[in-house]
Give the backbone structure.
Amino acid sequence: MLKLLVALANAQVRLRDESPANGIETEVLSGELSSWLTVLKQARFKEPDALNVLVNQGAVTAAALYKAARVLVFLEPVGTDTSNILQDKGWQLLDFSDPARWQEQFAIHADVFGTREQSR
């Protein structure tokens, strides 16, 4: 646990809301994030550990965080500088900015989201 906390501190990742994703009502989320979570839940993929995560001293907001996999999900493209900083600190960034590719992205990153077969 200490290792994770140190890693989070070094990556300058800060949670906006400490509530688990399962307890957050989608009505209070942005339209894009709400849509992404709906698709995720309908497909029965693994839900994120946190939503709306401030990254790089608040320079950008990751839509979702998967702590164990060290993955940040973005629904908008991330600048090259921010991307490089986070990758250098061990984070994997997933670009979900194109809703038409969400299903493909979930399948490509089954190590993060699981598969439909695993969820049943």
